[in-house]
Amino acid sequence: MTDTVTSERTADVIVVGAGPAGATTAYHLARSGLDVLLLEKTAFPREKVCGDGLTPRAAKQLTAMGIDISEEAGWLRNKGLRIIGGGQRLELDWPELASYPDYGLVRKRDDFDEQLARQAEKAGARMYERCNVGEPILDAAGRITGVHAKLGEEKTPVTFHAPLVVAADGNSTRLSVKMGLHRREDRPMGVAVRTYFTSPRHDDDYLESWLELWDRRGGQDRLLPGYGWVFGMGDGTSNVGLGVLNTSEDFKELDWREILKAWTASMPEEWGYTPENMTGPIRGAALPMAFNRQPHYTRGLLLVGDAGGLVNPFNGEGIAYAMESAVIAAETIVQAQARATPAQRELALRRYPKILKETYGGYYTLGRAFVKLIGNPKVMKVATERGLSHPLLMRFALKMLANLTDPSGGDAMDRVINGLSKVAPRA
Q1: What is the sign of the dihedral through the CA atoms of 24, 29, 33 and 39?
Q2: Is the separation of the CB atoms in 306 and 21 below 8 Å?
Q3: How far is CA 200 from CA 233, 267, 272, 282, 283, in A?
Q4: How far is CA 107 from the centre of its chain?
Q5: Which residues contact 276 (CB under 8 A, 6 or more apart)?
Q6: In 3D, which of 353, 358, 350 has the Cα closest to residue 424?
Q7: How far is CA 209 from CA 92, 107, 146, 239, 286, in A?
Q8: What's the pTM value of the predicted model, to 2 decimals?
Q9: Peptide bond preceding 295: is omega within 30 degrees of 0, i.e. cis?
Q10: Which pLDDT value is given to residue 386?
Q11: How confident is the model at residue 296, as a pLDDT?
């Protein structure tokens, strides 16, 4: 009996966290024939703070996982981004590219995450829900060989063993911290707060981004820090939220829930974004950006998604990068496991942070510069007033902010953005 339990709790790879990063890693590892344990601290379905809007980058990853993203399967498709600011309103369709589809998606996170986790299980991953991972298990050389956890409602202490562990446990990533990997203070951090309202605008064809947030209560209009979004969910509700960056002077001082209330109070009443139409509380979450925790591989531990600070600093998007880093991590692990000696396996694993830097490093460096600029409300105001009156410039901005270019054979805009990303220092 003990042997059975031991084998059930031993695998080739342990993945901690079954959000988009963890579930995608587990799926691709299992598809490649590895034995994978996927450990999730809560039970599905569970809520996550998110805008629920997915760009074409995320749609591509969902297709690669074999997930049915048709409207019949409950996904709401969108054509692009509507940008509001500087007295202007501009609708920009997602670009026509060979590398990505020309549509984005919307899906609630409680349901979205569960779909990915179940897909990983179908591929052969063994998932434990209500499995709260605490300490790493280290060998004499300080290398991770497993994790201690508390399992089930009775919080039974258990251990899981594997030669490799993937930290997909989000922004707070307790596992990384226990392994001595702390957040870099020189990297931008964002905060997002959001809630849901019943609204006639629930089936909007575009994701809506507000570059200026106004508090119109009282005698004087006040420009608030951050940017806002309104995403129709297709189910009678809209996800309405705002993001703010720690480069803003007001970052620590202000009550973001109050700012969200002030902003929605300034909207037309017929949209329904009023307190009585709110279907749940206002919730907040941190957005770890631009590789804010490094190295992404050390002593048997790989970081994916928010644990590695993979949120795009240009637009706050995390899901696509969580899934993409998961694919890179899974491919690296599969190649490493096929090597004959520990030294060769280690050599292969050390490629993971290098590939991440080659893939995103230059782009994230550009994003960090962008974040510093827009942290100043005056710069943001001028940019929106001037920029939105130039549709060609805004099409370029959409490609830049959403990181949607063809790597080869693209148009002039693609070549400029790809060129800038290549010459920028690797973050």
Answers
A1: negative
A2: yes
A3: 11, 14, 7, 20, 22
A4: 14
A5: none
A6: 358
A7: 11, 17, 43, 12, 19
A8: 0.92
A9: yes
A10: 74
A11: 95
